[in-house]
Design goal:
- By secondary structure, the protein is mainly alpha-helical.
- The protein has 2 domains: 127 residues, no CATH class; 111 residues, no CATH class.
- Helices cover 51% and strands 10% of the residues.
Length: 281
């Protein structure tokens, strides 16, 4: 509540206090329900607003951490307003990556993060603290950082693409029994495919820097899946795309890249790149 009072109006703070007051929980296992439990510490996990409260509390703790790190090492740059430099953190919910170019900064963060966050009732799980060194080698197979997974994606595009194809094929096998069904129209099968299978195959594909050979493997996997839902493994590519009203994944990936680029460029409307985007679109 103290953090909220720093950034919200009085009426908004009062609303948040009401949302946190007299909260109750009830456990349910099958048809059996336990007694009602009253909660009086924080916001219950799973509550619609708990994620927002956590983000606010976490950001307040991170600001204290940045301030102390900058006092001890003025070379650490962290300014979201300075658009010429990327922030040295990547945060998603409670998963935080500190991006440093030398080990000295990394050790400084390690030594201070646990101490500062504990002041805000947040605990760093040191067992999950990992260090990933991103560096180039003559042999790509020696670049172990490519096998590191962040938010469901491998840092190496080739590894991530292979993983996506494998995961989507496994998801397809789990529901293979529904494709031969004559009760389902082609349109309905495609809806199921796009929501359950294709979403796995194309997750984060706008960021991939794939080669021609890798892109063709992706197109081939996509076509095989479409043939599977039509129960026709020998259908020609042209007819396959016409019946399913699909396009090669390579084309969809190109469009997704442009959308992502447009989204990034619109962060700064005065940038030369943005003016070029406005010209072409």
């Amino acid at each position: 509540m103290k953090v909220l009072e720093e950034i919200l109006e009085e009426d908004e703070v009062r609303m948040c206090r009401i949302l946190l007051s007299e909260t109750k929980m009830k456990l349910r296992f099958g048809k059996h329900e336990e007694e009602i439990i009253e909660t009086n510490i924080g916001s219950p996990q799973g509550d619609a607003i708990s994620g927002m409260f956590f983000n606010i509390a976490f950001e307040r703790a991170m600001r204290d951490l940045r301030s102390i790190l900058n006092e001890q090492n003025p070379k650490i740059e962290h300014n979201y307003c300075q658009r010429s430099k990327m922030p040295e953190e990547m945060i998603y919910a409670d998963d935080t990556d500190f991006v440093n170019k030398d080990k000295e900064k990394d050790m400084l963060v390690r030594n201070k993060a646990d101490e500062i966050l504990q002041r805000h009732s947040l605990k760093v799980n040191n067992d999950n603290w990992e260090m990933t060194m991103v560096e180039r080698f003559n042999n790509v197979n020696e670049e172990k950082w490519r096998e590191t997974k962040k938010l469901g994606s491998f840092l190496g595009d080739h590894h991530d693409m292979k993983h996506r194809i494998k995961q989507s094929n496994q998801a397809m096998e789990r529901i293979n029994c529904i494709w031969p069904s004559k009760k389902l129209k082609v349109e309905d099968r495609l809806k199921i495919y796009k929501s359950i299978i294709k979403s796995i195959l194309t997750y984060n594909y706008a960021t991939w820097g794939s080669t021609k050979e890798q892109t063709e493997k992706l197109n081939r996997a996509h076509r095989n899946q479409l043939r599977n839902i039509l129960s026709n493994p020998y259908m020609k590519n042209k007819k396959l795309y016409e019946l399913t009203k699909e396009t090669p994944i390579s084309q969809q990936m190109c469009q997704a890249r442009w959308r992502l680029l447009g989204h990034v460029m619109r962060i700064n409307k005065d940038a030369p790149c943005q003016r070029a985007m406005d010209y072409y679109f």
